[in-house]
Design brief:
heterodimer; A: 188 residues; mainly alpha; 8 helices; 51% helix; B: alpha/beta; SKP1/BTB/POZ_sf (chain A); SKP1-like (chain A); Skp1_comp_POZ (chain A)
């Protein structure tokens, strides 16, 4: 696996930023974790940024990894494309420790990218980002006629739905018949 | 982008971010989509208190709006123009094919050629709304200016109440005509009446008194003696005596009138009332002046959508109250500047009411 530490992208700070010195509270060093997507490119992300993801936060909360252990065991998300994971990491870094704004205008405008981002964000359980993405998906059909909505969201017609349902029933019937025949064969 | 590839939670989240007019538009895409909207948006639809049919005339729809989440959301428009733009399309609505286009300003569905077949189109649209938003949804058929006179009737549709504003300042409308109009119409949710010269009260059986909410200008408290609704606002031009009001409030106290009343406002334009005289004559009781009285407010029975008034009645905070003898129910009463009397009935006995005092 190539470990290029791309998480230190332009939007994300490479190292934890230093807070103003305080005589009272000793500073706790920020811990970092590593994630990679389908492209195996590893991103270094701070625990603070990863808090946005309920899935990853749940995974790391009890690990107590040292920096070396974390580096050696990146979390694999093989179902997420590398560029999509990069977007997610960037978003988490940008919104680390900040209240999330009511709108986010930096989401991808291309349909397919947005579609993949929604799936990734839903999988990683990033609630705020999912809400932004879903708002953006909803906006895509604003002021469109039913036929235009069908094209944008690729919604099947009633006839196509009926045909698919018939096909599914037929398949289920065949499978059931196959199982019965197999069971009868076993019994013999 | 294939919407059906998303898990249900994501589909629901997308639909949650769409307003009622967009969901309505989407429901025409396919039967399965309509099913998904109805199941995932059940909570949203249950929170719709009313759908407003704003009309040009008694039988002629102009647009449909839904008051929702503090907004007055346009849902559909009705145009008499024939479809002549490229963007027109047909949709099947409760078994009827109707021509539509997208309303240029509001981006919602707009019916074309409405007057070609308006009764049947209105019925199909109404049936679709009932089926889509839920069969218990209430509708207001709102006619704010009855230009064509009182001889027209409005379509008889399920769950629809009539809201009319009979503002006929320039015309003399005889009470007989009004009576005929009231008796020939079904349930009234709201009646606004502003007639000059001021009308005599209707006959005690008149449907006018059965309206849930009324607003009458140029009148006196006498007009409310037979009122069976919940909310009333009356405006009195002259005020020479408080006797009518005292009589009315004592009738409420004895349980002889205004039994369903929740809220009454009497606004006096000229003259003043004697606050203490009224309080003495109706046997008002007082909460200790050092304590904080409970605040009376409730949802408005009717909100004028176009101007979108506040959703709730103006709060009454008063140390003065009266108790109805028949069931021990309490009403807070407040007289502001000796000119505006507000009366709010609590769904509480005196004992329960006094527990609310801080």
């Amino acid at each position: 696996m190539s470990s290029t530490e791309q998480g230190t992208s332009s939007a994300a700070p490479a190292e934890p930023t230093t807070a103003p010195e305080s005589a009272a509270a000793p500073e706790v060093p920020e811990s970092f974790y590593y994630v990679h997507g389908k492209d195996k490119v590893v991103h270094k992300v701070s625990a603070g940024a990863l808090q946005h993801s309920a899935l990853i936060h749940g995974m790391i909360s009890n690990l107590g990894y040292t920096e070396e252990q974390a580096k050696a065991n990146p979390f694999p998300f093989e179902n997420i494309d590398g560029d999509i994971l990069q977007m997610v990491v960037d978003w988490c870094n940008q919104h680390k420790g900040k209240p999330t704004p009511p709108e986010d205008t930096n989401l991808p405008k291309q349909k397919e990218k947005l579609f993949d981002l929604v799936l990734a964000v839903n999988y990683l359980e990033i609630k705020e980002l999912l809400t932004y993405c879903c708002k953006q998906v909803a906006m895509m059909v604003k002021g469109k006629s039913p036929e235009e909505i069908r094209e944008i969201w690729m919604i099947p017609t009633d006839a196509e739905d009926e045909a698919a349902e018939k096909e599914a029933k037929k398949r289920a019937g065949k499978e059931a018949a196959g199982e019965t025949a197999a069971a009868a064969g076993d019994a013999k | 982008m294939i919407l059906s590839k998303y898990p249900y939670v994501v589909q629901k989240e997308i639909l949650d971010n769409m307003n009622c007019s967009q969901l309505l538009m989407l429901s025409f895409v396919s039967k399965n989509m309509k099913k998904l909207i109805k199941s995932s948006q059940k909570n949203k639809f249950e929170n719709i208190n009313v759908i407003d049919y704003n009309c040009r005339t008694m039988s002629d729809l102009r647009n449909v709006h839904i008051p929702f989440n503090g907004k007055y959301e346009p849902v559909m428009y009705f145009s008499n123009n024939e479809p002549n733009r490229n963007g027109t399309f047909q949709l099947e609505v409760s078994g009827k094919m109707i021509d539509f286009q997208i309303h240029q300003r509001h981006n919602v569905l707009e019916i074309c050629g409405y007057d070609r077949d308006k009764e049947s189109v209105t019925e199909s649209i109404h049936n679709y709304f009932l089926e889509f938003f839920g069969s218990s949804t209430k509708f207001n058929w709102i006619v704010m200016d009855i230009k064509e006179g009182l001889n027209h009737s409005f379509p008889n549709l399920r769950n629809v109440s009539l809201c009319v504003d009979l503002t006929c300042k320039k015309k003399l409308v005889e009470i007989e005509k009004l009576e005929t109009f009231f008796s020939s119409s079904p349930v009234f949710n709201y009646i606004g009446l502003e007639l000059k010269p001021s009308p005599q009260p209707c006959s005690p059986q008149s449907k006018f008194y059965q309206a849930e909410s009324i607003l009458v200008k140029h009148t006196s408290p006498n007009i409310l003696r037979h009122f069976e609704g919940k909310q009333a606002y009356i405006q009195c031009d002259k005020w020479e005596t408080s006797e009518d009001l005292i009589k009315l409030l004592n009738m409420w106290k004895s349980g002889k009138a205004l039994q369903m009343l929740e809220r009454l406002t009497v606004d006096i334009l000229h003259g003043k009332v004697l606050k203490n005289e009224i309080f003495n004559k109706i046997g008002a009781k007082y909460i200790d002046a050092t304590k904080q009285p409970p605040v009376h407010t409730l949802p408005q029975a009717y909100i004028e959508g176009y101007f979108f008034g506040p959703p709730n009645t103006i709060p009454i905070t008063s140390h003065t109250y009266v108790v109805r003898q028949s069931d021990n129910r309490v009403a807070s009463i407040h007289i502001a500047y000796n000119k505006m009397i507000t009366f709010g009935v609590w769904d509480k006995t005196e004992e329960e009411f006094l527990k609310l005092v801080d």
